[in-house]
Design a protein that fits this description.
single chain, alpha+beta, five-stranded mixed barrel, two-stranded antiparallel sheet, 14 helices
């Protein structure tokens, strides 16, 4: 309430609480309520924008803009021109740097990040470009290296890096194919094999707007899927297959050894769930148990993500620190907390590689790595920037992750 009274100068006025009421009319006019509401909304949005553009608050919006550019790429009607997309992104990034001391700097950063996301997705598609089967081939002779192998409940599946391909139609050349075989007959990772197969084009969406499995296969450089016909024969490889193939063979050997060790004490779905939590291989879980876990809301536990990575890194961190703390000389003279963080980072990296480095696992590893590196350089470890940096790294390395349910749920 305001009370009317005399001011020290003899003028009549009002004394009341702050802030004073805005006059309903000025200069003999009347401000409509709709106009006042619109002005208030605009001013509120401006205040929010100024707050978000403040010191330290702009970084979390960068991956949002970067992802928006990737979304525009996947929504495009035709493939963009790579040189044009890269040139525009570089120009906008340069403009953002030049405008860093001006009020339009936040807008320039968002535009540059969106253009960078668009260019990154365009470049990734051009980099992984390969042949894709358009029509089924019912008899094709293939030779190649086995890159990955999945042990499933009823059948096994493996990815073959094609070295030679003989088919009635020679107009297509495939780099990789994914083949299904009878359970227990999948060849070992790293082996060179000869086989005959029936190949089918990548699966298209079941209805408009639904999930596109063919897109996932494209970014994995898999041009077709199918079934092995007859036996698989081992052959003499024309070369060693490269470092990547040897790495895949070593990691697959570790996964098989872990699964065999688990099989000595567990069996059935218990064994399959334990293997999924350690190695990321979930295909051996039976359909009833898999459906029950998803219906109960526990299906995400089978996907190695933030919880699993935090448990591994946390246990290693505290175990190393506790062991080092047993020696008083180390505790007084050396930064054992930083040493523990370094050990936990190595353990998390090994867990990432062992589990197959899926999108959810990558995102969790990058978040964990940012936290542990912050500990090692004496910076704040738990901030909202951790999520922003992890999202930006994942999108920069794998732009196709934006349209994956795992990334969207993260």
């Amino acid at each position: 309430m305001a009370e009317q009274g005399e001011t020290p100068g003899g003028r009549r006025g009002y004394a009341g609480t702050w802030p004073p009421r805005a006059p309903a009319a000025q200069a003999g006019g009347y401000a409509p309520s709709g106009f006042r509401a619109w002005s208030s909304l605009v001013e509120t949005l401006r205040s929010w924008a100024r707050a978000e553009a403040g010191a330290g608050r702009l970084l979390p919006w960068v991956p949002v803009a970067f992802g928006t550019g990737i979304a525009f790429y996947f929504a495009a009607d035709h493939e963009p021109v790579l040189p044009v997309a890269v040139t525009v992104a570089i120009a906008l990034c340069a403009a953002a740097v030049l405008l860093r001391r001006h009020k339009v700097f936040p807008v320039a950063v968002m535009l540059a990040a969106a253009a960078a996301g668009f260019a990154t997705a365009t470049w990734k598609t051009a980099r992984v470009a390969h042949g894709v089967l358009a029509r089924p081939i019912y008899a094709v002779a293939l030779t190649g290296f086995v890159e990955t192998r999945d042990i499933r409940e009823r059948t096994d599946r493996f990815v073959l890096r094609v070295v030679s391909m003989e088919s009635p139609r020679k107009e297509i050349r495939l780099e990789r194919v994914r083949l299904s075989v009878k359970k227990g007959t999948a060849p070992a990772v790293g082996s060179f094999v000869e086989l005959k197969a029936r190949l089918l084009p990548p699966m298209s969406p079941s209805r408009p707007g639904s999930y596109d499995f063919g897109r996932d296969m494209y970014f994995q450089r898999i041009g077709a899927s199918g079934f092995v016909m007859g036996s698989i024969k081992a052959a003499e490889p024309p070369d060693s297959g490269g470092i990547a193939l040897r790495y895949s063979a070593v990691m697959q050997g570790l996964r098989d050894a872990i699964d065999k060790r688990i099989g000595n004490v567990l069996e059935g779905d218990k064994r399959a769930i334990a293997t999924a939590l350690l190695t990321g291989r979930r295909d051996a879980i039976s359909a009833p148990v898999n459906d029950a876990m998803f219906i109960s809301g526990l299906g995400h536990v089978l996907s190695i993500s933030g919880y699993h990575m935090a448990v591994v890194a946390g246990i290693v961190f505290f175990a190393i620190r506790a062991l080092l703390a047993l020696a008083p000389a180390l505790t007084v003279s050396f930064p054992i907390k930083k040493w523990s963080a370094a050990g936990a980072l190595l353990a998390a990296a090994f867990y990432l590689l062992l589990s197959g480095a899926e999108v959810a696992t990558q995102r969790s590893f990058f978040m964990t790595a940012v936290v542990l590196i912050a500990v090692m350089v004496d910076r704040r470890a738990i901030t909202f920037r951790t999520l922003a940096v992890a999202a930006l790294i994942v999108l920069a390395m794998a732009p196709e992750a934006l349209v994956h349910p795992s990334f969207q749920m993260s």
